[in-house]
Amino acid sequence: MAQMDIVTKRIYQEAAKRDGHRVLVDRLWPRGISKDDARLDDWCKELAPSDDLRKWFDHDADKFDAFAKKYKKELKDCEDKLDELVNIAKEKRVTLLYGAKDEEHNQAVVLKEVLCDRG
């Protein structure tokens, strides 16, 4: 089985060649980032948490476990897109980009886990 290469990174960090396939996984475009600076290969709004879930979570680390459970449930509706990213990650690095300041408690961390479980 092919090994997958998936990493997470804040969109505010400089784009690098080693990022491979750069995918924004936020529903909203990050403030202060131009389309050119983002250097995206894909913007997967459909893989971002719903507006209701995002607003409920509000980047509260104490709610992260509950958020992760609810978000994983939402991702069940995105099987095709998840499979597409898994297949890309078997060929080259996939970098999941997010705007949140908290590098441990955000949707990209949960999404990476879901993708790794699928692969």
From TrEMBL:
Source superkingdom: Bacteria
InterPro entries given in the database record: YeaO-like
Alphabetical list of Pfam families matching this protein: DUF488-N3i
Protein's name in the database: DUF488 domain-containing protein
Lineage: Bacteria, Pseudomonadati, Pseudomonadota, Gammaproteobacteria, Lysobacterales
